[in-house]
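Sample intake — Fucolectin-7
Collected from: Biomphalaria pfeifferi
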Amino acid sequence: MSDQENRKRSYKCVTEIIRFKVAAVHLHFTKRFLLRSVVSGRKKTMSTCIIYFPLMAVLLTTSALYNAARFKPATQSSVFEPCYAFKGVDGNYDVINFDGIHTQSELVPWWMVDLRGQYVIEKIQLTNRHDYSIDIARRLRNFVLDIFPTDPRQLANFSSMIGQVCYNQAAPLDPGTFNFTCPVPIVGRYVRLIMRAGYQNFLHICEMEVLVSRPSSNLEENYFIRQVDTAISDAPIMTMTASDPLCCLQECLIRRYTIFCTAFNWVTSTGSCQLFSVNLFLNWTNRLVFTPETYFFIQNNATL
Ligand SMILES: *[C@@H]1O[C@H](CO)[C@@H](O)[C@H](O)[C@H]1NC(C)=O
Ligand SMILES: *[C@@H]1O[C@H](CO)[C@@H](O)[C@H](O)[C@H]1NC(C)=O
Ligand SMILES: *[C@@H]1O[C@H](CO)[C@@H](O)[C@H](O)[C@H]1NC(C)=O
């Protein structure tokens, strides 16, 4: 991941805060105008509200989406080496020198990512390969993008059952990057790409992004353990501001392979996001200090 991309991400989180702050201010003024208009019954103030309401709605609905799939655990029905499942979420979008996911030739090949938390999924961006010939890319057809709140692999009918469908397409998919917007935002944790062409074939894609708005509840990440009113006393490798712990978590995740981020402090009052590379195999608990209004998050290796 380039610095430019990292900056773009941070910028997204920042614009998101600004949007919410502006929306909050509008909400405040709308309330005041409404109260005043009720008290005074003046028509002029009511017409001001008519302008404020749609403006507020636009500001609230255009809040930035972000990719919740990057670096999350992924699996697939089989492996055509070395195109392992994680390559679908590794941030490599090079469609020419294809280095994505690739299964063996199967009747119902599939790939699935575990977001490690319940998210509100709005769109799925799929990048198809563009090497060799268009016909290779166009092997991808009769595919469904479906979403599950719990791990569907335990179900005996995994291959035939269908989760909440974000998108499906019978026609072959051309090379390129496509945004598939779910018919309604779908809350879920497991996002599956499954192909039922009716004959044996390979499933391969370059990259998938699962674009989410907010987590469905406060912070349902199982990927990191959270400790309230706690901070680690190490010197941070990087410090930045983040609008919420989830943005800070994302900043840590995108740096897992550069600074090997495994933990972070998030200070509620300032939004300070401090990233650490904590060795999870050594005992780090003696470096935790009681710090009011600070959350400490560390990668959870215990559950998978
Ligand atoms: C698959 O199994 C689940 C749980 O056992 C069941 O609820 C569902 O109806 C089944 N779906 C199909 C398509 O058979
Ligand atoms: C898909 O949507 C996201 C978020 O709205 C946007 O950033 C991205 O550029 C879009 N991708 C394409 C290929 O249009
Ligand atoms: C880690 O260190 C703390 C404090 O020194 C101690 O209480 C805890 O038992 C240790 N944990 C392990 C797994 O050794």
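Post-analysis note: The longest helix spans residues 3-40.
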